[in-house]
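Fill in residues.
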């Protein structure tokens, strides 16, 4: 690990390792560590990202008096102790074990209470499950760029009915049968070939990530999201190809069509090439399979029964949602954004769609995100104080 390149970080952030976290040696970025006894904020990244994705907001949260902890999650970056083998055990990547990772990390730092757990992209459901399962520890939650639809429902009122086999979702056959055949990205990510196709992308990992981040950002002007009417092939086909791909295409080939030109890259502000190079260097080293295992847990459905333990349970701690206004992620699962506000979160204190940001909201518009986060955490603490 000593041979790894230096991470380009603001002076207020340090990189460190914490051993024996649920079988992991976890790489962590932290800010506000100089003063003992500070309240804790935990930041959880998504895919294909790293703890580094929080570099723009961590110093301001620390300046506001918090100890800010951002790990490379299981399967990512410099955290070790996980298996990247497609044929290896999938269970360590299930949501309840990711919650155990988060709980173990804050416990190792000596915290029995976390003021806010904040998750972006696939980190959002992990944060949501933290707040749902252990609300006495995770006292408020911010979900970013991926709304939370709640635990899966248990079969209800079926005692007099014969058992039925698990029904296959017909939407995948319907997508494949469209005049322009399509496939859903999460099921693409669950394929054995996906990691190899991305790590060996024809354009190289650096240019693949450049195009991927660009395509899902507000810089791609065709990102004009709106609610979809339902989980049907016709509605899902309205999503951009980074979500509902052309059936014959890989993800690198999909995003390559939207690669920004050299002038745009040279002028890039929210993710200059020197910062993108850190992501690409890490993914060249680790590959993508660690993150792809998370998608496989979801698409396989094999861990739904475990999650049904919490069927009907709501998130009752103060909650908030933040996403880019130009982010299709808010609507990619029809009805979830609305259900999160109406029934899943009983103490929702705001849903904010930040203009000028796509999917990478805390990197594209960090100042606005910082303001919203600090406002929310202050309000949540005031509410808890009575």
């Amino acid at each position: 690990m000593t041979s790894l390149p230096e991470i380009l970080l603001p002076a207020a952030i340090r990189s460190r390792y914490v051993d024996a976290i649920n079988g992991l040696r976890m790489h962590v970025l932290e800010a506000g560590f100089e003063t003992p006894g500070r309240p804790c904020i935990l930041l959880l990244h998504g895919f294909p990202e790293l703890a580094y994705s929080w570099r723009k907001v961590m110093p301001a949260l620390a300046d506001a008096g918090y100890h800010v902890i951002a790990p490379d999650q299981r399967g990512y970056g410099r955290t070790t102790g996980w298996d990247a083998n497609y044929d290896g055990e999938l269970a360590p990547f299930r949501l309840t074990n990711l919650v155990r990772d988060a709980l173990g990390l804050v416990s190792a730092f000596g915290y029995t209470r976390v003021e806010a757990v904040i998750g972006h992209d696939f980190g959002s459901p992990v944060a949501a499950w933290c707040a749902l399962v252990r609300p006495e520890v995770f006292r408020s939650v911010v979900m970013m760029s991926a709304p939370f639809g709640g635990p899966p429902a248990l079969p209800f009122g079926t005692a007099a009915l014969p058992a039925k086999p698990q029904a296959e979702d017909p939407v995948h056959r319907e997508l494949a049968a469209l005049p322009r055949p399509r496939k859903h990205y999460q099921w693409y990510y669950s394929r054995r070939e996906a990691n190899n196709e991305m790590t060996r992308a024809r354009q190289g990992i650096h240019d693949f990530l450049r195009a991927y981040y660009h395509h899902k950002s507000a810089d791609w002007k065709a990102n004009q999201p709106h609610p979809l009417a339902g989980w049907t092939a016709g509605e899902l086909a309205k999503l951009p190809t980074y979500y509902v791909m052309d059936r014959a295409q890989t993800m690198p080939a999909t995003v390559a069509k939207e690669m920004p030109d050299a002038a745009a890259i040279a002028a890039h502000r929210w993710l200059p090439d020197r910062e993108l190079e850190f992501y690409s260097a890490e993914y060249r080293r680790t590959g993508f399979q660690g993150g792809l295992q998370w998608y496989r847990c979801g698409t396989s459905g094999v861990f739904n029964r475990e999650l049904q333990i919490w069927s009907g349970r709501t998130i009752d701690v103060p909650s908030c949602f933040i996403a880019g206004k130009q982010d299709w992620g808010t609507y990619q699962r029809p009805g979830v954004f609305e259900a999160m506000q109406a029934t899943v979160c009983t103490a929702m204190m705001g849903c904010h769609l930040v203009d000028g940001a796509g999917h990478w909201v805390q990197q594209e518009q960090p100042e606005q995100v910082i303001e919203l986060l600090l406002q929310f955490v202050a309000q949540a603490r005031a509410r808890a104080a009575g």
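The chain is about 35% helix and 15% strand.
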